[in-house]
Amino acid sequence: MTNTARTTAGGQVQPRVSQFAARAEQVAKVYGTGDAQVIALDSVSVGIPRGRFTAIMGPSGSGKSTLMHCMAGLDSTSSGQVFVGDVELSRLDDKRLTRLRRDKIGFVFQAFNLVPTLTALENITLPMDIAGRKPDQAWLDHIIDTVGLRTRLKHRPSELSGGQQQRVACARALAGRPEIIFADEPTGNLDSHSGAEVLSFLRSSVQEMGQTIVMVTHDPAAAAYSGHVVFLTDGQIVDHMDAPTADRVLERMKGFELPGVAAS
To answer: Is position 186 within any domain?
Structure first.
């Protein structure tokens, strides 16, 4: 764990920014009781470094989505602690937790979650509009041009392809400059070409914009776009991999004898 303060030459104590955009410490998540009890997470500890693209992998039921939801403040933990930056989430009431998710966290989901009556641009700026904040126009223009949506800004979701809709969702997540973006199977509803476009954009947002991204996936090819992979099975972290390739990830997953990997 990093120190959270430092002393300046003048003797003043200033906060020190954590090296982690988010972290979990001994997190457990249990559903049900008695014979119906399911342990989704079992004492999981992991840190997500700033400015890094991290993939969380595992088969269905491994706990990967539960871990993401807990770290993003979308679900509570049964025990343990979750931090976004240096803010411990269990200490926040509902109002402050909602504000933290709105201001500090970006989300990209498999289902896009765009508002059908709004244009692409209106969907991108929606979180800031709700918060009463004006977007940084230079940054917004940079995001729009990076995702290649300049000519589609007045189109509604029904007038966009699946890949374009997901790029709108990615732009929305990035537009507010969040501390961290959580992406849950972001290419699950896309064809391979559109999926590769979205994954390339997510990777470039880390490499060129310094964004921090956590992506949940079961797909070795998607995980290969990340810089680091965390492997889960049965609610526990069982391995890590730096500089992943699709072949290395698939081989490692097979080594865990996890069901359904070969079909991913």
So the answer is: yes
Beta carbons within 10 angstroms of residue 31's beta carbon: 11
Say how many CA atoms lie within 13 Å of 15 toward its Cβ.
6
In total, how many domains does the chain have? 1
Cα gap 180→153, rounded to integer Å: 25
Residues spanned by the domain of 107: 50-62+93-255
pTM of the model: 0.85
DSSP string of 53-119, one letter each residue: EEEEE--TTSSHHHHHHHHTTSS--SEEEEEETTEEGGGS-HHHHHHHHHHHEEEEETT----TTS-
Closest of 52, 51, 22 to residue 242, by C-alpha:
52
Average pLDDT for consecutive 10-residue bins of the chain (264 residues)? 44 59 97 91 96 92 93 95 95 93 91 95 94 90 88 96 93 92 92 90 91 94 96 94 95 69 39
